[in-house]
Amino acid sequence: MKSITINGSQRESVGKKATKALRNAGQVPCVLYGGDKPVHFSAAELAFSKLVYTPNAHTVVIALENGETFNAILQDIQFHPVTDKILHVDFYQLFEDKEITMDIPVIFVGNSRGVKNGGVLRKNRRSLRVKALPANLPDFIEADITPLRIGHKLYITTLENDAFKFMHPDNTVVCQVRRSRTSVDDSDDEDEDGVEATAAEAPAATE
């Protein structure tokens, strides 16, 4: 998974007055959890643009002025309710030998036969939660919709990978092709391997 570096300065004071002064100076107060003790630091608000305002998933390298570095992921972020300015960011520290749970975006590829015949593709899941060692976290999860016909669903079991584990039930629907007024019947086409053909043949989906 690609990584973004956040350059920060360790915070000596974490009180309300100091926090307000940081924000007035264009800095964002942050906390890194998951280690022996929380690490309080601040970073320029512009440093978060590539991390926050993107659908892509990234890990983070937190580089402090004192020379310390930490590998982490974004855990939580708070925005101002009116201005949408970043108020506070929480990170969680990564360790090479400890699995981490993270939301990974789904990339849909291919040309569905059902869509070609007038069906409508519904993307039920635009991201999926996975658990893996940091080195095995994927940048994205690829979902091939090519075999999907009208009325068919792509289940999460089709996307299983030995490198990570999905934190969803096996009957989770990733996407499906629904019938529309302009669709034509494609039920005579052959089934493709890897796609659960119909709702009757597959486990009941939880949407």
From TrEMBL:
Task: Write down what this protein is called.
Answer: Large ribosomal subunit protein bL25
Q: Where is the composition biased (Low complexity)?
A: 196-207
Keyword RNA-binding attached: yes
The record lists the organism as: Snuella lapsa
InterPro entries, per the entry = Rbsml_bL25/Gln-tRNA_synth_N (IPR020056), Ribosomal_bL25/Gln-tRNA_synth (IPR011035), Ribosomal_bL25_b-dom (IPR020057), Ribosomal_bL25_C (IPR037121), Ribosomal_bL25_long (IPR001021), Ribosomal_L25_dom (IPR029751), Ribosomal_uL5_bac-type (IPR020930)
Job of this protein: This is one of the proteins that binds to the 5S RNA in the ribosome where it forms part of the central protuberance.
Region (Disordered) spans which residues? 179-207
Tell me the ranges covered by the Large ribosomal subunit protein bL25 L25 domain, including all copies.
6-91
Q: Where is the Large ribosomal subunit protein bL25 beta domain?
A: 99-179
Under Gene3D superfamilies, the record lists: Ribosomal protein L25, beta domain, Ribosomal Protein L25, Chain P
Composition bias, kind Acidic residues: at what positions? 185-195
The entry's family comment says:
Belongs to the bacterial ribosomal protein bL25 family. CTC subfamily.
A family per Pfam: Ribosomal_L25p
Query: Does GTP-binding count among this protein's keywords?
Result: no
User: What assembly does the database describe for this protein?
Assistant: Part of the 50S ribosomal subunit; part of the 5S rRNA/L5/L18/L25 subcomplex. Contacts the 5S rRNA. Binds to the 5S rRNA independently of L5 and L18.
Q: Which UniProt keywords apply?
A: Ribonucleoprotein, Ribosomal protein, RNA-binding, rRNA-binding
Q: Which SUPFAM superfamilies match?
A: Ribosomal protein L25-like
Entry GO CC: ribosome
Top-level lineage group: Bacteria
